[in-house]
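Exercise: predict the fold of this chain.
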Amino acid sequence: MIHHRTIGTPGPRVSRTSILEVKAMLVRVGKSKDVATGQMRVFDVAGTKVTVASLDGHLYAFDDTCTHAGCSLAAGELDGTTVTCPCHDSQFDVTSGAVLRGPARRAVRSRVAEAQGEDLLVET
């Protein structure tokens, strides 16, 4: 399945460089009920460990490996949209992968995740 993500805001005078359309390939990793609300779970996505978090009816996916010391973020704590790494307390925003608190300096990769019927799909 191909998922389209548009970046930019169309307006009356939009040039071709104003909007970037990104095509993401989504693969089935499990069932939509595999991740309970307020919880996280790790899935293998084309050989990469990816954590999926379910919050308030939204699914968020991000690479599971902390960019500071390589620890599993799914083993950490989820508080709202913030995941705290269990090794050195780096914090990341699960909606974007952005670093909220170090020692990590690089964001984790954020991925598209969605439920389609009973299937849980994540961007490769």
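Check your answer against the key: The domain at 2-123 is CATH 2.102.10.10 (Rieske Iron-sulfur Protein).
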